[in-house]
Specification:
2 domains, single chain, alpha+beta, Beta Polymerase, domain 2, 4 strands, 239 residues
Length: 239
């Protein structure tokens, strides 16, 4: 689903407030991620915003703070704030994030700072491998602290979007078509690696309220096995 009119109106207000608070510092305001298209899931997806400033020093942050506080009170995450120079120099560090931003963003104010950024492919590949393995380790850690079926269900539905994103980026590394829609990306990686990803798709069904969250212990076992198999196969193929 797309973001609602209320969220669109909040974005308009955010830009106006930032322009008023930072008349000489504000560079660009960009909406990025699933809120840009119909992959947005109410209750799970965030309205993510990138703000670039001429200089992201303490005085600029202090001026922006009341605006950001208002934005967070609307139940949105704190925007990513970077200086224009910092943004240009960070593609090698945030290769996955910048590639996603370049593919899926909407300019709300200013000139598009993402247009001229090139993401280093080798850094992207290294980050995909590292973050996939890290995501599996963190999933296990979180499960150890999940005391109830509800907590296990919440763990799966809150982590599945990140895994889908990393699966899509694995396809990019392999030079294959990588669908933006998360469910399609999971299906594509399963096909590309000849790996069973049915449990991951089932978690999307729960998240989208197409199926009930029941027998979560068995469901988690299948979910963990699926994301581990994909991660191991990506690691093996990338060497």
């Amino acid at each position: 689903m797309a973001i609602k009119q209320k969220q669109e109106e909040a974005l308009v207000q955010l830009v106006a407030k930032l322009k008023n608070a930072l008349p000489d510092q504000l560079g660009a305001v960009i909406l990025y991620g699933s809120a840009v298209d119909h992959d947005f899931a109410e209750g799970f997806s965030d309205v993510n915003v990138l703000v670039t400033l001429r200089s992201a020093d303490a005085s600029a942050l202090k001026a922006a703070a009341p605006v950001i506080d208002w934005w967070v009170q609307q139940k949105h995450p704190v925007p990513v704030v970077m200086s224009e120079n910092e943004l240009r120099q960070s593609a090698d560090v945030f290769a996955i994030e910048f590639m996603d931003m370049k593919q899926r963003h909407r300019l709300l104010h200013g000139d598009d700072p993402l247009a001229g950024i090139e993401v280093p492919r080798e850094m992207h590949r290294a980050q995909v491998e590292r973050e996939l393995r890290t995501a599996v380790v963190k999933l296990r850690q979180a499960y150890l602290m999940a005391k109830t079926d509800e907590a296990v269900s919440r763990l799966m539905t809150s982590s599945v979007s990140s895994f889908a994103t990393l699966f899509r980026h694995s396809l990019i590394v392999f030079g294959q078509q990588a669908p933006m829609e998360k469910r399609a990306a999971v299906e594509a990686i399963g096909s590309a690696l000849n790996t069973d990803v049915a449990a991951v798709l089932q978690v999307f069904d729960i998240r989208e309220k197409r199926a009930p969250a029941k027998d979560c212990g068995a469901m988690f076992a299948a979910y963990l096995a699926a994301v581990t198999r994909v991660t191991d196969e990506v690691d093996r193929r990338l060497g």
